[in-house]
Specification:
single chain; about 280 residues; alpha/beta; D-Maltodextrin-Binding Protein, domain 2; Alpha-Beta Plaits; 3 domains; five-stranded mixed sheet; binds phosphoribosyl ATP; binds zinc ion
Length: about 280
């Protein structure tokens, strides 16, 4: 029995989906024109599909799980469960208008909004009690205001350069999105076990990316002060150096904290600081 995973066939999420599997120790031969492929070293079968179709396939149980943008999950409204955020494919769904237009609180009232996300936008308008017309278009949403089709758009943004080159400005963000793992609501026992094995690996990879391994040299008389600055997984490892007056200290730091802590470590007397990426991290 194999776990059936649906990923995007080609597009923005394809490479990162395969990369994550690889980091989890699962090798898949690239999709190419194939519809499906099997992992050599994990009971996993991978289906390559359009991202828009993934929630439906997972709801129907054709695939047990899928990697897909949260934006697509919310738009498609299928009966699936989001079980893990995957940390790639990050973007936001935003309203944008002509950069010369003045944006006020009730700007959207009575206006035409072009979008590929009519369900999410309708929901947003309802919440805000705004009465506006939604024009659903499937691609190149950003050209709609320029050709007189709409007064505003609602589209995915990552760097913002598409909006900029089309003379638009972002006014509000409706949703922050990233790739997520979705699962079928009625997985069998075997499938559940395989999924928890896969999730264990994904979580170890994600945790490792958020942390760095740090090695440094410390004069023994300053060790206490330096150790106080280092959280570590339990407590830092301290090893003697060949020079009796010095020790080597090893620990794990959160990526978000480490610049701050490194400065304090230097002030406290640490030298020869090395920061090394961690591949997997199991608690
Ligand atoms: O063929 P298929 O239907 O599978 O692919 P697709 O063309 O529908 O999707 P694709 O590959 O473009 O995007 C897949 C998923 O990637 C989306 O559903 C999002 O979850 C995620 N993602 C992340 C993005 C972006 N960033 C993104 N920037 N999807 C689209 N964009 C587009 C956006 O629509 C706009 O046209 O990129 C442009 C804006 O980018 P910036 O960098 O100029 O702001
Ligand atoms: Zn799509």
């Amino acid at each position: 029995m194999k776990l059936k995973l649906a990923i995007q066939k080609s597009g923005r999420l394809h490479d990162d989906s395969l990369k994550l599997l690889k980091e989890c120790g699962i090798e898949i031969s690239n999709g190419g024109n194939k519809l499906k492929s099997e992992a050599a070293n994990f009971p996993l079968e991978v289906f390559f599909l359009r991202d828009d179709d993934i929630p439906q396939y997972v709801e129907d149980g054709v695939a047990d799980i899928g990697f897909v943008g949260e934006n697509v999950v919310f738009e498609k409204q299928k009966q699936v469960t989001i079980s893990e955020q995957l940390g790639f494919g990050k973007c936001r769904l935003s309203i944008a208008i002509d950069k010369a237009a003045e944006y006020k609180d009730n700007f959207l009232q009575g206006k035409r909004i072009a979008t590929s996300y009519p369900v999410i936008v309708q929901d947003y308008l309802q919440q805000k009690k705004i009465d506006a017309e939604i024009h659903e278009i499937s691609g190149s949403v950003e050209i709609a205001p320029g050709i007189g089709l709409a007064d505003a758009i609602c589209d995915l943004v990552s760097s913002g350069s598409t909006l900029f080159t089309n003379g638009l400005k972002e006014t509000e963000t409706i949703l922050y999105s990233q790739a997520v793992l979705i699962k079928n609501k009625c997985l069998g026992e075997v499938q559940k076990k395989l999924l928890s094995k896969l999730l264990f690996r994904i979580q170890s990879v994600k945790r490792a990316k958020k942390n760095k391994y740090i090695l440094l040299n410390a004069p023994n008389d300053k060790l206490d002060g330096i150790i106080k600055l280092l959280p570590g997984m339990k407590s830092p490892t301290v090893l003697p150096l060949a020079d009796n007056n010095w020790s080597s200290v090893h620990s794990v730091l959160k990526e978000d904290d480490f610049w701050e802590i490194i400065e304090q470590l230097k002030i406290a007397g640490a030298e020869g600081i090395l920061i090394v990426p961690i591949e997997k991290m199991i608690l």
